[in-house]
Amino acid sequence: MEIIQSVLNGILLGGLYAIIGIGMSLIFGIMGLTNLAHGDFIIVGTFICMILASQLVGSLWLALVITILVMTVMGFLIQNFLINKVLDKGPEPALLTTFGVSICLSNALLLFFGADARSINVSFATANIAATELISVPAVYSVNFIAAICVIVTLHYVLNHTYLGRAIRATADDSRAAELMGVDTKRVFSYTMGLAMISAAIAGLLVGTTFVFYPSTGTQYLIIAFGVVVIGGMGSLLGTLVGGIILGLAQLLGAFFFGSGYQLLSGYLVLLIILTIKPEGLLAAKTRK
User: Fold this and answer.
1) CATH value at residue 253
2) Max CA separation in the chain (angstroms)
3) How many CA atoms are closer than 13 Å to the CA of 264, on its beta-carbon side?
4) Cα gap 65→239, rounded to integer Å
5) How far is Cα 201 from Cα 48, in angstroms, rounded to an integer?
6) How many domains does the chain have?
7) Among 10, 80, 183, 219, which is disulfide-ready with 252 (CB 3.0 to 4.6 Å)?
8) Taking the complete model, does pTM exceed 0.85, yes or no?
9) What is the tens place of the pLDDT at every residue in 114-159?
10) Does the record carry Transmembrane helix as a key word (predicted)?
11) Dihedral, 174, 37, 144, 206 alpha carbons, nearest 10
């Protein structure tokens, strides 16, 4: 029964990992850019949501809505006034720009909030959902998984059934042809970053209700996001969910068989194995050119 418990927890944890990685996957799939500030964006969203819920608005849901709006505007401005300015100069300047943004954000959080551990308190944080008499799953993991499914389904609809989504897909397929058809690709990139920041805000809330966090933990979630999207395939929404589940299962099964000290090691051993067998990711061939 304990192994079944570990499998269920791994699958549900994979939902949180998927929503952590979905923004990075979206940015890479559209712009071909590895956003090194992605983890710090998530932690910024966590801190904004925590401050709003605990000190200003009182409601966690209202705090999330405000955080989404703030993060969307911030992402649009960063993309429009920083990253877009260097995209035409090759991949390295844009990569370094996101690295600089990451450093600025993490140090700003450290300056304003200190280095203490924080968390977002919710009523279901310690609750369990009983599947059988012997098996139960953490309620917070279940909420994370449901949220991941909702975000992925929503992004799929936006990308496939809206004008913005068609413009984004056209830009991803061939930016020069899209420009010839009248698409403002730089503006599309800014809107894409806005979508990625919406997912980062939601991921930030879920991270804050599931784990303790620090101003410096953005790098930890950047590594998780990178592992998820590499396993599933850069730019694949479904692949991100699959990658998150595989990474979550690998970590918790590794902890079950070898001890908690091997949780991270087992996850990244699976990442290396998949990179060796299929470097482009498990579902990349089905979703990208």
Assistant:
1) 1.10.3470
2) 62
3) 5
4) 27
5) 9
6) 1
7) 10
8) yes
9) 888 888 888 776 777 766 666 777 888 889 999 999 999 999 999 9
10) yes
11) -140
φ/ψ bin of 243: left (φ > 0), alpha (ψ from -120 to 50), beta (otherwise): alpha
In a domain, 226, yes or no: yes
Residue 189 one-letter amino acid: F
Question: Does residue 252 belong to any structural domain of this protein?
Answer: yes
* Angstrom distance (rounded) from CA 123 to CA 130: 17
Q: Which of 194, 148, 159, 161 is nearest to 21 (CA)?
A: 148
* Contact criterion met (CB below 8 Å) for 267 and 254: yes
Is residue 19 included in any domain, yes or no?
A: yes
Show the domain range for 218: 2-117+138-287
Q: Is residue 124 part of a domain?
A: no
Q: Which residue do the tokens 């909030």 mark?
A: 113
* DSSP character string of the chain: -HHHHHHHHHHHHHHHHHHHHHHHHHHHHHH----TTHHHHHHHHHHHHHHIIIIIS--HHHHHHHHHHHHHHHHHHHIIIIIHHHGGG-HHHHHHHHHHHHHHHHHHHHHHH-S--B----TTTT-EEESSSS-EEEHHHHHHHHHHHHHHHHHHHHHHHSHHHHHHHHHHH-HHHHHHTT--HHHHHHHHHHHHHHHHHHHHHHHHHHS-B-TTTHHHHHHHHHHHHHHH-TT-HHHHHHHHHHHHHHHHHHHHHH-GGGHHHHHHHHHHHHHHH-TT-SSHHHH--
Per-residue pLDDT tens over the stretch 31-73:
888 899 999 999 999 999 999 988 888 788 899 999 999 999 9
